[in-house]
Amino acid sequence: MTFRSLLAPLGTFALLLGGCPLLESASCLNPDDGGGSTTPSPYQEVYDAGLTQYVGTRAVQPAQVDNAWLYAGVEVNRYSTDPAVGGPLCMRGDEFFVETREGDSDALVIYLQAGGVCTTEVCAATVSPALNLRLLTTGDLIGLGGILDKSDRRNPLADWDLVHVPYCDGSIFMGDVDRVLSDGDDRNGPRDMAYQRGLLNLTAALEAAKARFPNPSRVVVAGSSGGSYGSVAAIALARHYYPGTDLLAVVDSGAPVLTDRDPGFVDRILREVNARQYIPASCPGCIDDGHVTGVVHWALERDPRLTVAYMGHSRDFVIGEFFMGGTADQHQAAVLRETGELVDAWPGRAYRFITAGTEHTYLLDVDYAPAWLQEPVLYVFGPLIFTGPDVTSSDISRFILGGMRESGPNDAGATMNGYEWLDLLVNDPDHATNVVDF
Q1: Residues 7-39, buried b or exposed e (16+ Cβ, 10 A)?
Q2: Which of 176, 231, 306, 330 is the most buried (most CB within 10 A)?
Q3: Is pTM beyond 0.85 here?
Q4: Could you tell me which of 184, 191, 193 has the C-alpha nearest to residue 84?
């Protein structure tokens, strides 16, 4: 039985987030309706389960907002580093921040950074912000930037308003737990505090987005690697803040694909980071096969203004082999099957961009640097930002990154790169297409 046939009688998507904010009111009011509408959100059930518990609270308001004077239009929202405040925080106690940049367009892109995951089963993650928008605003000067680079005219999102969300919680932007979790460094003792406050961090980002960009004409939620899994929650949370806006989710090198080998993996990870409750009882079987494709089906069934676009390398080493412990062949089979099911079930609302190779991610366009150059750089500098007891310099040296200039054949057989594919999705959706090469 396919996920599509399983979900059809259910008729909705709640796993990833449904409904009414748990603010000071019990009513189901959409924020963009000025408080007058009682139309329930498509994601009501998961809102009721607690996804919106921090919306509008003091905990997710910045301690200060700085203007990055060297970078026009960029503001940095900074949050307290005192764990007792109970607000957004990076996993080992470093400062969490959210950056916003005003563009010439009235459309908005919200980008969730990559950065692994940290649980008792596997811990390899960025525990402080690895990149910032101030660096990536003119990223083509240093050979990266992709969709965050406003100076690259190939970038179809160059003129858009932008919210950049660093990933440093190790809980795919969904965690809500402070606990002891080893950092793999015996020199500082075995009991290391981990503040896995992904839900607080994500909510703070959406609060910053709404405050600066209250009425975008449309919204793109994009995420790479760990950020792509976080995009599943961000879809629903973004719909709370922007209930009447067309929403495109670009999930880069991650969701909905996880593992065929361990069907219970998703359930265990969500329980560890205190996020399992966001899979509602009305969505039985949605994660039972080790993937979250069922969640995406459910979202598309509930939310008619949602479009989902997957990007991934067919034999991605980081996801398929390092984190999921499978083989390249197993990962490729899962990628083709899971994304194919979505595209077949939702023509015109689900798309995929798959190129051959073992590289990881596209959206920051890092493949200006060839593999032979990336390997030694990752070996030496990777452990400074990507840490945990389950990752070594040798492992990180194999985390070769891809980019938007990679290409493959589209549905008509013509060669198309990532920028061209994304440009159709955002600027000419009637002619949007799929790219598949493996």
Answers
A1: beebebbbbbbbbbbbeeeeebbbbbeeeeeee
A2: 231
A3: yes
A4: 193
Residues 60 and 86: their CA atoms lie apart, in Å, by 9
Instruction: Give the model confidence (pLDDT) of 240-284 as tens digits.
Output: 999 999 999 999 999 999 999 999 999 999 999 999 999 877 888
User: Using one digit for the tens of pLDDT, what is the confidence trace for 168-204?
Assistant: 999 999 999 999 998 777 676 667 899 999 999 999 9
Residues 6+ apart with CB under 8 A from 136: 144, 145, 148, 149, 164, 364
- The answer for residues whose C-beta is within 8 angstroms of residue 159's C-beta and 6 or more apart is 103, 104, 105, 150
- In 3D space, the residue among 12, 21, 361, 422 whose CA is nearest the CA of residue 206 turns out to be 21
Copy the structure tokens of residue 43.
């994601």
Please give the residue that has the higher pLDDT: either 188 or 37. Answer: 188
Q: Give me the residue spans of the domains in the chain.
A: 3-436
The domain 3-436: what is its CATH number?
3.40.50.1820
Give the largest Cα separation in the chain, rounded. Answer: 58
Alpha carbon separation from 119 to 130, 269, 363, 387 (Å, rounded): 20, 7, 26, 12
- Tell me the CB-side half-sphere exposure of residue 138, using CA atoms within 13 A: 4
Type of residue found at 261: R
Measured CA to CA, the distance from residue 9 to residue 429 in angstroms comes to 29
